[in-house]
Amino acid sequence: MHLEVDPTVLSDTAADLRRCVGVAQEFSEQRGHLKGMVDNCGAQHLWEAADHFIGRWGYGMGLLAGDAEHLAGQLERSAAEYRRLEAEISRSAG
């Protein structure tokens, strides 16, 4: 079995995940502002539905952000280890 890994792709993927984490955190930080925007939306049931959605969405985003941050760290550590191994193999082959 042949496995080919590109450490640059791992690092780039980690960076992309971190950008997604930033968006999720921004949403989470703006929950209060978003809830304020629906305070005067009219019917009580609409406000309750929007409030519930924003709360649950923010909570879910927090969970996803935590998992994505963990995965990004794992990808970065993997990329670093592959680079270290490649350098070691190059030195021993030379």
What does this structure look like?
The protein is mostly helical and 94 residues long. It contains three helices and no strands. Helix 1 packs antiparallel against helix 3 (44-93). The two termini are 25 Å apart.
Give structural attributes.
Helix Hairpins; 94 residues
Q: What's a concise summary of this model?
A:
The protein has 94 residues and is mainly alpha-helical. 85% of the residues lie in helices and 0% in strands.
Strand-and-helix sequence, N→C? HHH
Number of strands: 0
Question: Can you tell me the number of structural domains?
Answer: 1
Share of helical residues: over 70%
Rg on CA atoms, Å: 21 Å
Shape: rod-shaped
Structural class: mainly alpha
- Which blocks of ≥5 consecutive residues have pLDDT under 50? none
**Strand composition percent:** under 5%
Number of continuous helical runs? 3
Instruction: Let me know the largest β-sheet.
Output: none
The CATH topology comes to Helix Hairpins
What is the name of the CATH class? Mainly Alpha
Mean pLDDT over all positions: 89
Q: Report how far the terminal alpha carbons are from each other.
A: 25 Å
Corresponding CATH architecture: Orthogonal Bundle
